[in-house]
Write a structure and sequence with these properties.
alpha/beta; Rossmann fold; 6-stranded parallel sheet; 5-stranded mixed sheet
């Protein structure tokens, strides 16, 4: 063993590698992304690593490998589990041979997600065991346990860290490479009575699953990550039930004070019932502190009823803990102070820091998506329009002054929402914006639906040649894989033609006049048509020759600012100027300026 300073996601990856991982697949999504990327960096050549086209594909790939006896991991964020839920629910009934861990990172807040959904519910819904780490060290250790339980019970298991575990850092103990487990897959053995799901098989396996989960409830009551910490004062009749990062907040808040009995739940499903009965015995009240939903609170309430325990369970349902958002040291301390009647620790007086400036999320300086949105906006002036967005950097096109995203639901939904609006309002010119990565992940089927059902819409593919929002991961259109292989690019234009879209035009959005003309021409056609705005992500290119403002020509009309909202265009001393450190030389502002006061700006691509 040795010590390393690691991010939680890196610790999860290294724990999986140490546990004999054979294959890892996933789809990028904050806060989960670094698990697969770290595995790729630590790969000695014995692990197959793949960014799959979406979470469903990733889970099905890993299932096939697990059928063959491989130890596999799938990575995604909480909303990605929705995409993977179809195979997940059936796989719960079929089971696996090799260990299979489905790592789903939840995002309380939410910090970078559409929802605050709680994967612990999915565990109960799918009847799959769930592991809930409370620290970076525990995440590293627990991954190995998850693989062992998965193999022992022939079931996939869910592993549910949250953002503060995923992105927290700590010095932890990790195994030396010579201590790593080596797993040699047996290979796929044909057995249609096991691997082919039929109603009768599902019925029989359902019975076995319920029996298994009863057994696991007892087993998890003995699991060393589920713990009861005795009260410092035996006369205390109050208790705290918690889990995950909230356990760390509880321990920090109670440091140096008389602490009540504490239960940490590391396996929310199947719930460690016998341990919970031991925890509840002799208590009058329990406060449940958890993220996100009242899972522990409901379980303890049920157990009190089942065993006739007169313990009052408090938490989110009783409005003693806030119902949504992240917990924090401060919020937990306040909850505990009120519940336990503690005198809040007197804060150390410090100088009030200056107020930080408001920094709303914005498209990067030089981002080609800004040019794409502006071109469509210019082309559609005076027309009744609907602009349906999707998940990616380009969701930021909703901000002023662009104001070009009217809807955003989930990945791939914009293409279908556009069709729905168009069917009810045929006089509306409908656009669906989708990124190149999202196109491959979940938008293709929507386009097929549009062609088949004769929709009247314009698909706009914002092709910046990467998965920019989550850290520039490769996808089928980039021509490379996570294994470092150079492969044939999947051509978006060819795909669109192949599924029946007859008009497909590709244009550089930074050539503004051409882009505007293209939008006017293509959108005027009937049926399903597509524009591919192709220009690389500003972060991936080498900028050169930033633009500058000729003060003699500038009339301070501020059209460049009011039309584009580029963070590289600023006001200094009452005058418009270009922030040279931000400007990439894209030249879009030059083309917008009515007095030709902006000069320079040629960038290398």
């Amino acid at each position: 063993m040795h010590t390393e300073f690691l991010m939680g996601n890196a610790a999860i990856a290294m724990g999986a590698v140490a546990a004999g991982l054979n294959l890892i697949s996933g789809y990028p999504g904050t806060p989960s992304t670094e698990v697969l990327e770290t595995t790729a960096k630590k790969n000695t050549g014995n692990i197959y690593v793949e960014w799959s086209v979406n979470e469903k594909a990733a889970l099905e790939l890993a299932a096939g490998a697990a059928y063959s006896g491989a130890r596999t991991m799938v990575t995604m964020k909480q909303v990605g589990l929705n995409v993977a839920s179809d195979p997940l629910m059936s796989l719960a009934y079929v089971g696996v041979k090799g260990g299979m861990v489905i790592m789903v990172a939840d995002d309380p807040g939410p910090i970078s997600s559409q929802t605050e959904q709680d994967t612990r519910h999915f565990a109960a819904f799918s009847k799959l065991p769930c592991f809930d780490p409370s620290s970076v060290q525990e995440a590293y250790d627990m991954i190995g346990d998850a693989f062992e339980y998965s193999e022992k019970y022939h079931t996939p298991v869910l592993f549910r860290p949250t953002t503060r575990v995923c992105h927290g850092y700590a010095s932890i103990n990790v195994k030396d490479s010579e201590e790593y487990l080596v797993n040699t897959p047996e290979g796929f053995i044909k057995d249609s009575s096991k691997w082919v799901i039929f109603p009768r098989l599902s019925y029989n396996n359902h019975i076995k699953i319920e029996q298994r989960n009863e057994e696991l409830s007892d087993v998890f009551s003995q699991y060393d990550k589920n713990i009861i910490i005795p009260a410092t004062d035996n006369s205390c009749k109050k208790g705290i039930a918690t889990h995950g990062i909230s356990f760390s907040y509880v321990m920090e808040a109670l440091s140096g004070q008389n602490a009540p009995r504490i239960m940490k739940v590391a396996t929310p499903f199947p719930f460690p019932e016998k341990l919970a009965v031991e925890f509840l015995s002799g208590l009058d009240e329990v406060l449940c502190i958890e993220e996100l939903d009242p899972v522990i609170e409901k379980e303890l309430t049920y157990i009190c009823g089942k065993y006739g325990l007169s313990v009052k369970i408090k938490g989110k349902l009783t409005h003693d803990v806030k119902p949504a958002g992240e917990n924090s040291c401060k919020s937990v301390s306040e909850n505990l102070s009120e519940f336990l009647g503690l005198v809040p620790t007197k804060a150390v007086e410090r100088e009030t820091p200056p107020q930080l400036p408001v920094r709303p999320p914005v498209l990067c300086a030089g981002c080609p998506h800004r040019a794409s949105f502006f071109a469509v906006k210019e082309a559609m002036k005076g027309k009744k329009t609907a602009f349906c967005g999707d998940i990616g950097c380009y969701t930021l096109g909703n901000a002023m002054p662009l104001d070009m995203v009217d809807t955003c639901l989930c990945m791939g939904a914009g293409v279908n929402i556009t069709q729905g609006i168009g069917k009810i309002e045929p006089d509306t010119t409908c656009f669906a914006f989708v990124g190149d990565s999202t196109f491959f992940a979940s938008a293709i089927t929507g386009v097929v639906n549009a062609v088949y059902n004769q929709a009247d819409m314009t698909l706009v593919v914002l092709d910046n040649s990467t998965t920019a929002m989550t850290g520039h991961q490769p996808h089928p259109g980039t021509g490379r894989t996570m294994m470092g292989e150079i492969v044939e690019k999947v051509d978006i234009e060819a795909v669109l033609h192949g599924i029946g879209v007859k008009t497909v035009e590709t244009v550089n959005p930074l050539e503004l006049s051409k882009a505007v003309d293209c939008v006017k021409r293509v959108s005027s056609e009937k049926g399903v048509k597509a524009i591919i705005f192709r220009s690389p992500c500003a972060v991936l290119i080498k900028p050169s020759m930033p633009v500058s403002v000729d003060e003699n020509k500038c009339v301070q009309c501020k059209k460049c600012i009011n039309s584009l909202g580029c963070p590289g265009i600023v006001i200094k001393e009452g005058k418009v100027c270009i922030e040279q450190s931000l400007c990439t030389g894209c030249g879009l502002c030059k083309q917008v300026c009515p007095t030709k006061a902006i000069m320079g700006g040629e960038r290398d691509e």
